[in-house]
Amino acid sequence: MDTPLIFLLLLISSRLLLTVSANFYNDVDITWGNDRAKILDNGQQLQLTLDPTSGCGFQSKEEYLFAKIDMQIKLVPGNSAGTVTAYYLSSQGPKHDEIDYEFLGNLSGDPYIMHTNVFAQGLGNREQQFYLWFDPTLDFHTYSVLWTSNQIIFSVDETPVRVFKNRETDLGKVDSNYHYPKSQAMRVYSSLWNADDWATRGGLVKTDWSKAPFVASFRNISAAASSNFAAEEALDSNEEQKLQWVRNKYMIYDYCADTKRFPQGVPLECK
Description:
Mean pLDDT: 89
Largest sheet: 8 strands, antiparallel
Low-confidence stretches: 3-21
Number of strands: 15
Helix content: 10-25%
């Protein structure tokens, strides 16, 4: 067997290893919402439920400083207006770091909004939002974070949608508000909750509690901690094309383009 073929097989094998089913009994703790969060199928699946009284959530038992995180999620179907399904990494404390996915529910037939954000040293306001190019309620889809010391890559079904680069070397001296999450270990969190004061059309559309309970499903959580993902963090030409395709066709908000929000000029990291 020649060397390129061996390398290809090893690369495929390494990617498959990252997506092996985990066991939620072993990997997470249910942190709030009592029995609204349920682990099913001998630990292979987890469901979060939102009713008029409360939502619920869970967190990983382990914490990570740089990691590749994958989670397969099937979002709340039907009229999900007012609900938010959150999946994120976070440290603790007032100067916490955080890497966010939030899925903002909508009226039946309208698309979900996938909201992304990055916090460092307690400072966020780096929102980018996207429509998804599929119905995320019909089946499970994989939402990934590749977090290294150099950059953060958000991906959906292995299609990159956002790259946030570490620019502390060139910006740290001129912008005291710029930080990159690189020194605080983070856990993986997920929750389902009511946010109808802002989630859908700025809070104009409220949660229809006659549709409750609302249910989001999770499976195949995978977390690989490492300080060296050099082979995966460099996007190849095909991945670059996918990234630009998503951003050109499906991105609906970018803080770097919001001149009304930043009348004195967009943040330096956007330039």
